[in-house]
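Example record

The entry below shows one chain as it appears in the dataset: sequence first, then structure tokens.
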Amino acid sequence: MTTTGPAAEEHAAPAELPTIRSPRDAAHLVAHIAALDHEQFHVLGLDASYRVLTNRCVGIGTLDRVSVSTLDVFRELVRLNCRTFIAFHNHPSGDPHPSNGDLDLTLRLQLAGVLLGLPLLDHIILARGCFYSTYEEALYPLGG
């Protein structure tokens, strides 16, 4: 049976799905939000082979903040049977370094992910031409 139309796009063949092998891969996949003039918070839901199953915006904010509900982060990830995820948002200021609020959110998502069996691999903050990875900076023991 061949599926066409919008449903076909939702269920791409595994070979067609982008695979994340590093924070740079993830940052490149979502680089388009770095140029926004307001903060947005997205999640990449991944399967067990780190192929992207979903790229979903879960929060739209202002110039210097975005409010994110833990429920909104995990709803689609659980529905799609994701095995892990990467959180990311942008800093329109151009400084990719995390605020205390960003670090608190990272810890909250990490703890919720442990409880749900859906581990957080990384929280990436994008700015024009650069990014910050909590995984690369070893702020938290993220990833597997």
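Notes for this example: The first strand starts at residue 40 and ends at 46. The CA atoms of residues 39 and 65 lie 6 Å apart.
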